[in-house]
Amino acid sequence: MDRTAQLIARPAEDTAVYDPAAPPGPPHLRAVHDGAVEVLESNWTGTSTVPSRRLYPHQWSWDSAFVAIGLRHVSPLRAQTELETLLAAQWGDGRVPHIVFNPSVPLDAYFPSPDFWRSSTAGRAAGAPRTVQTSGIVQPPVHALAAWLVHRADPGLSRARGFLARVYPQLAAWHRYLLHRRDHGGAGLVSVVHPWEQGMDNAPSWDAPLARVAPAPARSFRRADLDHGAAEDRPTDLDYGRYVRLATDYRDSGYADARGDFAVEDPSFNALLIASEHALARIARELGATATARHARAERLTAALVERLWDPAEGMFFCRDVHGSGGPVREHAVSGLVHGGGLIRERGVSGLVPLLLPDLPREVAAAVVRTLRGPHFGCGTTTRLVPSYDLLGEAFDPHRYWRGPAWFNTAWLLERGLRLHGHLADADALRRAALDTALTSDFAEYVDPYTGEACGATGFSWTAALTLDLLHQHTATDKGGDQG
C-alpha cells in the first residue's frame, strides 16, 4: 500500500470531485498530488505537522490551520487531530499561541525557544497551560474557517467524534480574546502587538512602527534560522533585534495586553478573523445554535475594515499604526521612513487578502482585483505568483522573506477571493500557476514571484497542503457558502 492509500481515512462526502486514488487530468497532477502527500507525511509527528523539519521543528498556529485544510482531502481524521492538538495548548484567556513546542526538540534548534518565552511562569496570570510550553504571542485566526472546511470534508466522521462540539467553545473563546483584548484602536478591529503575530514577519509595513523599538543587543540572542536559510533571504539582524525586544517586553509584562510601542491594525489578520466569524456562524448552525449574532458581527467588522483601512484612491487596504504620535518617533535605519500614526502606505499582499470576504462592497472588491492585476502586483501579467510586496516599491526584494517573494498561503487566499467574487478566469489562472510552481519548486516555503525559483525551506507543509486543496475541485457551496 502506498503512502496516499495509507493516509486516506474516509472519503469526503460532499466536497471533493477530485479523487486522490485516481486523479483526473494530465499525469503531472498525479506527481503534484503524490509529492504533496509525501511532504505532509514526512512532516507529521504523530499528533501534528511541523512546517519544516529543520527550519521550523515545532507546531505553528496558522500553519496547522492551513495544513488541516489540505489534509482533509486525504485524512479527515488527521486534519481534525491537527486542530485539536493546537487547541489543546490554548491559554485560559482564550489566546491560541503561535508556537506549541515539542519537548523532544533541543532548545538550540529554534530561537526564540521555550526558555525564552517562559510561558508556564510568565504567562501564569493569563492562563498559560502548565503541561506544555508555548510562545506568548498569537497568529492570524484562520482556525474556525479551517475547522468548518475539515468538518465539511467528512461530516459523518466529524459528527461521530463530536469534533465541532468540542472545538466550537475553544474557537469562540479565541475570537473573544481578540475582539475584547486587542482592540487597541478602539474602533472594533484587532491590533497585532508583534510582526510575528501577523505572520508576514519583515513586511515593509512594519518598518515605521518598528522604528520606535530599540533593538535587543545582538549578543543577547542567537538566530537559529540562519543555520538553515541564506542571510540575504531572511530578516535583517536589526529587525530581528527589534522582534526580540518586543517579545521580551511583552513576556516581562506577564503577556498583558496593554497598548505598547507596537500596535497595528492589519487588513489580512482582520479579514481572516471575519472569515472565521462567518465560519463560526456556520458551525453554530450545524450544532443547532443561533448564528444571527455572529453573522452580524462579521458584517460590522467588515464595515470597520473598510472604514479604517481602505484607501479608494490606491485601490487596496493598508495597515494602520494605532500608536499615535505620542512619544519619540525615530527614523528607521533601513527604510529611512519616519512615521507617527495613521495609515502605513506600503503596498503589501496583506492589503489584498480582504478579497476573500463575502460582504465586501462590490466596488471595493472590483478595485482590489484591478490592483492585483496592475503593475504593483502583476498577477496574470508580469508575475507567476502574487508577490508579497509592491513590485515598484523601494524595499522590493524578490528573495527576502515578506519583502517581495510569493507565498502559497496568500495565493490560496486570493484564489478563493477571486472565485468568490466571480473572477473565475483569474482564479483558474492563479490556481494553475500555484500548482505548477509548487511542484517545480519542491514545495518551497516561498518563491521568486517572477521566476518561481525556490527560496527558504523546501518540503514546506502549508505549500503541500494548500496544493492538495487547489487540486480538489470544490462545489459552489464549498467555495462561497463556507465563508458565510
Automatic annotation (TrEMBL):
By sequence similarity, the record places it as follows: Belongs to the glycosyl hydrolase 63 family.
Q: Which residues form the Mannosylglycerate hydrolase MGH1-like glycoside hydrolase domain?
A: 56-463
User: What keywords tag this UniProt record?
Assistant: Glycosidase, Hydrolase
What protein name applies here? Mannosylglycerate hydrolase MGH1-like glycoside hydrolase domain-containing protein
Q: Which domain of life is it from?
A: Bacteria
Gene3D superfamilies from the xrefs?
1.50.10.10
A Gene Ontology biological process annotation? protein N-linked glycosylation
Q: Which SUPFAM superfamilies match?
A: Six-hairpin glycosidases (SSF48208)
- Xref: Pfam families: MGH1-like_GH
Q: Which GO terms describe its molecular function?
A: Glc3Man9GlcNAc2 oligosaccharide glucosidase activity
